[in-house]
Amino acid sequence: MLGTAEKSTRAPRHEATRQRIVDEAWRQVRQHGLAGLSLRRLGSSVGMRAPSLYSYFVSKSSIYDAMFAQGWAECIAEVTPCVTASDRRGVLRQLARSFAAFSLRDPIRYQLMCQRVIPGYVPSPEAYAEAVEALELTISRLRGVGIDGPGDVDLWTALLTGLIDQQIANDLGGERWLRLIDDAVDMYVDRIDRRAK
Amino acid sequence: MLGTAEKSTRAPRHEATRQRIVDEAWRQVRQHGLAGLSLRRLGSSVGMRAPSLYSYFVSKSSIYDAMFAQGWAECIAEVTPCVTASDRRGVLRQLARSFAAFSLRDPIRYQLMCQRVIPGYVPSPEAYAEAVEALELTISRLRGVGIDGPGDVDLWTALLTGLIDQQIANDLGGERWLRLIDDAVDMYVDRIDRRAK
DNA sequence: GTCTATATTTGGATAGAC
DNA sequence: GTCTATCCAAATATAGAC
C-alpha cells in the first residue's frame, strides 16, 4: 500500500535488519565467491534461521538485487565527488583513478556490478536503474568537457573497464595495469583532440 | 608409467571418449552457465552414470582444465593464421578482429578463458601453459611490428579485452563496441607512433 | 569400464505452530 | 517475526560388485 515493493520508511527496524543482512551477504561473497552465497549460512551469521530471511527478502535473487543497487549507489557517492577538475584531461584522469580505486578495493563488488557472473541472476529493473544513473552521471561529466561524439563514451568505458578487468584477472593486488591509467587517458585525449580537427 | 598424468597415445578409444565428454561439457555450460556444470547430467548426456566419468577425469576441476586448455588451443589455431599483414596497423586490426570474432562467437568460452568466474576453480599449471603460449604468440606478433615498450602490450590487451567485455556484458549479440575496433586500433597506433618520437 | 548403492553435504523454499 | 520440520532436489565423490 505504501512503498515500492520492498522499501518502507515506516518500519525503521525492519529496514535496519535488511541492511544488516545485506552487509553480512557482502562479507560472505567476499569469502566464498559471488555464487557461494548460502541462505543457511547467511541466516546463521545474522542470528537467525534461513527461513526467517524470507521475512526480509522474497528470494535469494532479491538479496543480490539489493547488493547490486547498493554497489552502484556507493559508486555514485564515492566517484562523483572525486571529479573536481574542469579541463578535459583532468576530469578523465580523476574519473579513471577514482573508479579504478573504487573497483579494485572490492573486486567481488565490481564483479557483481559489471560482469554477468551469477547463473540465473539478472538485475531487476529497479536495481538496474541505479547503474543507469551512474552511467548518466559519467556521460554528463564527459559532455561537460566536450566529449559527446557517437562511440566516444563507449570507447571510454571499454578502455577503463579493460584496464580494471585485466588488473583483477591477472594481477590482483598489484598495479601492472593500474599504472597505465595516465597513459591510457593521454592516448584517449589525443584521439579526441585529433577528431576535433 | 607412460604419459603425463592424463594423456596417453596408447588408448585412442579412451582419448576419444574424453573428448566426447569435453564436447558435451561445452554444450552444457553454454546452456546452464559455467558454474552450472553437473556431473550427473554430463554423464547421462554421454550415455553413462556420473561415477563413470571418474574413469576419464580425476575430478570436476580437471574437466574444466581440459576445457580451458582446449579453448586456448582453439584460439591459437584460429587467430594466428588470420594475421597476414605486415604493417603495424594491419597486424593490429587483424589481431583485434579475429580475436574479437573468436571471443564473441562463444562468450562462455571467453568467460572461462579470460575471467575468473568459477568459484574454487584455478587452472592447473599444465592448462595455463596453453594460455601463456597464446600470449607469447601475441607478444611476438607485436614485437614484429615494433611494439615492445614496457606497458605497450599490456595496454593493448586491456584495450582489446575491454571492448570485448563490454560487448558481452552490455550488448550481447549486437555490435555497439565491436564497431569501435578500428577506432581503437587507430588510437593505439597513434600513441605508439607518437612515443617513437 | 561401467554399474548400483550410498555417503555426505548442501541448496532454496514452504507450511504451520508459536 | 521467528522458529521447527520438512520438501525436494541437487551436488561431488567413493566402495565394491560385475
Structure characterization notes:
The structure is a homodimer of 197-residue chains. Residues 1-6 of chain A have low confidence and may be disordered. Chain A is mainly α. Chain A has helices at 12-32, 39-45, 60-79, 88-105, 107-114, 125-144, 152-170, 181-196. The first copy, chain A, starts with 11 loop residues before the first helix and ends with a helix. At the A-B interface, α7 and α8 of A face α7 and α8 of B. The first copy, chain A, binds a DNA duplex (18 and 18 nucleotides) through loops.
Give a quick set of tags describing it.
mainly alpha; homodimer; Arc Repressor Mutant, subunit A; Tetracycline Repressor, domain 2
State the gist of this model.
The structure is a homodimer of 197-residue chains. Chain A is built from eight helices and no strands. At the A-B interface, helix 7 and helix 8 of A face helix 7 and helix 8 of B.
Topology:
The structure is a homodimer of 197-residue chains.
Chain A: H1 12-32, H2 39-45, H3 60-79, H4 88-105, H5 107-114, H6 125-144, H7 152-170, H8 181-196
Chain A binds a DNA duplex (18 and 18 nucleotides) through residues 14, 38-40, 48-52, 54-56, 59-60.
